[in-house]
Amino acid sequence: xxxxxxxxxxxxxxxxxxxxxxxxxxxxxxxxxxxxxxxxxxxxxxxxxxxxxxxxxxxxxxxxxxxxxxxxxxxxxxxxxxxxxxxxxxxxxxxxxxxxxxxxxxxxxxxxxxxxxxxxxxxxxxxxxxxxxxxxxxxxxxxxxxxxxxxxxxxxxxxxxxxxxxxxxxxxxxxxxxxxxxxxxxxxxxxxxxxxxxxxxxxxxxxxxxxx
Length: 212
What we know:
Elements: E1 2-7, H1 11-22, E2 27-33, H2 36-46, E3 50-53, H3 62-72, E4 78-82, H4 87-96, E5 100-103, H5 108-119, H6 127-136, H7 151-161, H8 166-173, H9 177-191, H10 196-205
Parallel strand pairs: 1-2, 1-3, 3-4, 4-5
């Protein structure tokens, strides 16, 4: 079972989404929080596999809660589920350490899919979020850390930016899955980021999407 903590300050939202998710054979809601502070405390107490995090909440907002959770528990996997798509919400949430970013307009089945994929180590971004990243985050930094990447690591980083899973990258490059995982780990270390989502942000921000 994928153990999920759900943080949202609207009870009806929690009831609706939780009812659908609890009906899934592989997902279980193990806790609910109505504000960011409670989400932070429950996350460290329950250690869920996935945290669904709203952004605008009392006591502590979702961005600060995400930042504090990642600071104290770097392995946490957080999916932002919000109504906001503006830059001052999207980028800080991802930079704080969120693995995925979904909108509340998404269907429940899409949120369930995001939970499963994030649990497997992938990043799920709403198409609108990806579009905004491509438009707004292309600010090249040629003194950047990607100069340390090998040709193969750069190739894998670009495939990650295209949303490819580890298995898809292995199939496309005709290399072993274990080899892909080693390269991904090396990429995260060289770019000084914690996860694939932040690596993808780095790729867009430094305009690497055009470097073939």
